[in-house]
Design goal:
- The complex is a heterodimer of chains A (414) and B (475).
- In chain A, helix 4 (137-145) packs parallel to helix 5 (162-173).
- The longest helix of chain A has 19 residues, at 301-319.
- Chain A has helices at residues 12-23, 52-55, 61-74, 137-145, 162-173, 192-199, 259-263, 301-319; strands at 2-8, 29-32, 48-50, 59-60, 78-80, 84-88, 93-98, 101-112, 116-118, 127-128, 134-136, 154-158, 177-183, 206-208, 210-216, 223-228, 241-244, 247-250, 254-256, 288-290, 328-333, 337-341, 344-346, 353-359, 363-372, 375-384, 390-394, 405-411.
- Chain A is globular.
- Chain A has 8 helices and 28 strands.
- Chain B is α+β, with helices and mostly antiparallel strands and 475 residues long.
- Chain B has 3 domains: 2-41 and 149-219 and 315-358, FAD/NAD(P)-binding domain; 82-145 and 221-313, D-Amino Acid Oxidase, subunit A, domain 2 (D-Amino Acid Oxidase, Chain A, domain 2); 381-459, Arc Repressor Mutant, subunit A, CATH 1.10.10.
- Chain B has 12 helices and 22 strands.
- The chains are: A alpha/beta (414), B alpha+beta (475).
Chain lengths: 414, 475
Amino acid sequence: MERDLVIIGGGPAGLAAAVAAYDAGVHDVLVIEREAKPGGVLKQCIHNGFGLTRFKESMTGPEYAARFVKETQARGIEIMTNTFVVDLTADKTVTCRNESGIFTVRAKAVILAMGCRERSKGALNIAGTRPAGLFSAGTAQKFVNVYGLLPGKRVVILGSGDIGLIMARRLTLEGAKVECVCEIMPHSSGLRRNIAQCLDDFGIPLYLEHTVTEIHGKERVEGVTIMRVDEQKQPVEGTERYVPCDTVLFSVGLIPENELTKRAGIALDPRTKGAFVDGSRETQAEGIFACGNVLHVHDLVDFVSEEAEIAGIGAAEYIRGGQRAKEYVPAAAGENVTYVLPQRVDASAQRVQKIYFRVRSVMRNAVIKVQAGAYEKRIRKPAVAPGEMEHILLPAGVCGGVKEVRIDVLAAEE
Amino acid sequence: MFDAIIIGGGVIGAMCARELTAYRLKVAVAEAADDVCAGASKANSGIVHAGFDAPCGSKKAKFNVEGNRRMEQVCKELGVRYENNGSLVVAHGAEEEQKLRELYERGLENGVTGLQILDKTALARLEENLAEDVTSGLYAPTGGIVCPFQLTIAAIGNAMDNGAQLFPSFAVCAAKRTESGWQIAAKDGRVLEGKVVLNCAGYGSAQVARLFGDASFEIRARKGEYMLLDKSCKGFVRHTVFGLPTAAGKGVLVSPTADGNILVGPTSVEEDTYDTSVRREGFDQIREKADAMLKNIPYREVITSFAGVRAYSSRHDFIIGESEYAEGLFHAAGIESPGLTASPAIGRYLAEAVADRLHAKKNAEFHPERKSAEWFRQLSREAQNEIIRKESAYGRIVCRCEEVTLGEILQALRQNPRAHTIDGVKLRTRAGMGRCQGGFCQPSVFNLLMKEYGYRAEEVTKNGGKSFVITGGEI
């Protein structure tokens, strides 16, 4: 099979990329989705708050997904469901498996939109037993929201990622008692609004600089030992506390699912754990683009959609043989910045370029400093946090001839 | 009335069962847990040891070397992943090199073939990530790796295909002599009668022996903790790399697994009870020893950690053969390392002894082969397409990390011995054993179990007993 554009993944990123590519003039688009229905993880995110930034209205996850599914349907874009991509090569050959067999699709351009997975409890080397009742937060979410089953009645949550926070509220609303949320860092990795709405409103304690050090119970979880940690994240002796529970949820990070990207030999940024991309979200493999959580983990789906559109337009321009950037300027993560994305920007761009970044630690009265050669801009922010992605807008024409674009986050001088 | 009852559905019981069904014998397997492969057989290094470590003249040495020779053939018949990757024992400096030579000599005496002591340069050609201060190593080309769960499950499955009957959740609590042999009773009141009984009860084997009036040995527990690294680390080591053995065992090893991961461990902790919990300090102990052998071990890629229990005997050797105190009771007890390697040889030895006792003839209908859990993935793409056209379930991926299809899971639910728990499916198919540790596929496997067995949601367990997955009920 030969197609102009193949998009791997029919979640929010893949769907938005498909619509944008179509509207940019590429109509031969195939979206490949491994599950039975498009929408990705949004299908199980039945809480609201999606779309506030982008559409100025609050939708549930399924509603947000449905909006994009409808857009693809209106354009007659093909979504091939129950289809699993088993291989991808740098020359844009996509090998798939579904109930009709194993087949390859040759594409002019590919957009990677495979999303991310939860870091598993197994990766944490927690002491103790391995009984039933240990769930990744997202797995528990699927049991509750898709299957209508409550995993347990007395819950401890390790990690204050957004899914964990959302599940703290969800389980409470369904009658479970959430004993506490433990976060090893001195700050939550979740959105501030989720801490307020999911924990504070329900009186669920958040223990910062605390972790679960041991799991107890033989057949089903019976409790956990929690301990305070020091600055090196090492448990502090004498702070042990036993918390009885029948369920433990782990919300300890999301990892972009880049197994296919690696198979295609595409270089990954160790900081984002996604591909290195330019402003159009093209990876270092020509004609292969990436967007959404496979590129870097977002906290708001609104930004996923936005990024997917950039990738969709970029892929369409590539297929149509349009103007392509010839020169790039690296974008650098400076002081108190974990990563920037894209990692390189178009030197000769005649448009505004948006650069996303994450800060390393919580800071009040921060100043974001953007520098590109002679161009310098300072933006004041009342507060920044690692759990909330930030961005700056780079005006057209400031990158010509400069060595790098650098973003620092500094403390404001009073 | 059975001819032979095997107590224990671990790898030893499994191999005994399989070998016994090669005779015209009625065979039963009584397993205390809900599923087979529930003890040491599911948490060990998965190594097919060459046999240089066991003391000369010991049962360990004899059955190790013999088991090693038979393993490849057994795995071929049962469709079990096995690889003859070779093993290395590394030494640092003169003192350890002396011990290496002792090991080499012992290996020769045990009948291990192909042993070679290699210098640093020769070692570097075999493994590129050895620690800088490793000075020489013992290379054993007959060392291998095998998937221990597949081996156990496939051997029991094959025995069942050949007529053996499996009694899961049969925790033996009493034994009494009958006219023709023994009657054993389970805690729930069920009884089984057999002419002979094979005690393959692992950690429980001393307790079982006592039920028969044999108190001649004790079984103790020595725990071993492990870390398992993601398949993305494949190639970090190709051989099984050991440090020098000590009194406490073969020590920490770093090895590829037959499934393509990298395994680091085990520790060695004496325990009073059968305890598979992992200790915080265990991880440090593993790292310290592993780092002495290899540099830059990618610990960041750990996907799970677990512990297994070595059930070793007070005699510090395998106890194999008929009890001196209970006629018709045959022991395979104290089977610590190299038990997995030795299992095909122990199975054959005991089956021959039992057949001899019962004057059993060979079973002409015995079929040594079993449809492998892997048969589908070993086919060419064309052949897979052929299958998918007929059975579309093989076109559906359920576990994305290990790329396990619905067809393979249905096979695990329906093939002897049928999986009926989440872990049962995992051990048979690898669904949930990959980098996301079941995060994505567990709900799907859960659903398939409900559908296949008509379970209510609250009845699905992780690994039997009261290990219920859902305890909060329906919403």
